[in-house]
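Posting for a labmate who doesn't have an account.
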Amino acid sequence: MNLAHIIDAHPADRVAIISRGRPTTFGVLRDQVNHLRGGLSQRGVVAGDRVVLMCSNGRYFVDMYLAVVGLGAVAVPLNPTSPAPELEREIATVGAKMVVVEPSASAAWALIDRAMVPTVELVVATEVGTVPGADVMFDDLLGVEPVPVVDVEADHLAVLIFTSGTAGSPRAAMLSHGNLLSNLDLVRAAGGGVGPDDVVYGVLPPFHIFGLNVVLGLSLACGATVVLVQRFDPSTALDTIRDRKVTVIPGAPPLWLAFSHFDDAPADSFASVRLALTGAAKMPEEAMRRLYDKFGLVLLEGYGLTEASPVVTSSVGLPQKVGSVGKVISGLEVRVVDEDGDDVLRGDAGEVLVRGPSVFLGYFEEPEATAKVLDADGWLHTGDLAVTDDEGFMYLVDRAKDLIIVSGFNVYPAEVEEVLSEHPAVKEVGVVGVPHPHTGEAVKAFVVLEPGATVHEETLVTWCLDHLARYKCPAKILFVDELPRNVSGKLLRRSLS
């Protein structure tokens, strides 16, 4: 077993990916990955080594991802546009042996203190002259004799993805070859999804589990063509959808919200699209109605999380029920339980528990955090609250108590609070999520200043931008005299508004 085999069975002349307008067939992709595996092996990459991929949605990521897991090494996709301190922490956390740097990440990489990431032995630059001090160029790795795919067991670690999902501050979720492959198999078995004749619009980034395994992984496994897009703009996107005759669009709510508000778009803009999918955050029902009224698009919602590789429920092939995330895909067990762990009645809200072959191995080198979400019987405690109806359709009513979801990305308040608290003018801080018309939610911070201190809102926002990814930074900061707390001193987030 090895995840890298998903590209093996398809006709050599079928187009696998289109990146920056350049098509790559499955035959060419297999050849590139085979040689790249040899190049990495020659440079000392072996099974179990962690390889950080600071790459955007493009061929460099696809080639490297498949080559790394093909060797039994561990791929660690990171957001190439994150600030240096965040990337530095993540690289150090996983103990990466090798880092692959695209031009979009070169500025951040230049600011990383190599003394803080002592495990890094090899830096690969994807393009000439973009990464000072790089040890080797991507193309040089291709000029090496291929080595075979390494056979691994189902529980062999394949990917580490940072998530704040169910256990607080960002942690590296461990996903095995068996986890990822089983979720692909279960989604395909559900029927009505992606097939070899499809053209998939791939705008979700590969450092997000939906982009990695639902968009890229599923497309490659099914022999479909995935059009990889690095930046989303509604006008350009519509051109791509028309010109490439896109048939499947998986997208987070901000993408669909942008389309729903794009008044200049012709009514037939999505004429080629047979499947429009969304997940990662709640989709406003009003926007779904606008998409249908204007374009005839029926938007299908699903539910998943990184720790489940990710798909848990799907609406594909089912009658549309607005507000529902569909039904549990066959092969997974799901319970909805009360605070005592007992199953709730149909129609009552409870926490979603998931068990099955796609549930993750745990958090990397964090057994205590793992034990909080993965119990002895193999049940994943998601922290998400849901209701199921008499037909088995699930409706999400809430999620992990404090989690903020911005454009489909998880933001945990404690991480933002920690960064703000490090500013010398800040005494206390509380962070919550607030509704936002375009991103679903936005981060809002309430700050108590040190006595006598003064600081502008813009200064604190800039401080956050220097330490956190943009989507994690507050859209609004309010200065208050005190924060609401209970008698034990615990911050009452629900009292912040």
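Reply:
Got it, the structure tokens are right above this. The first strand starts at residue 15 and ends at 19.
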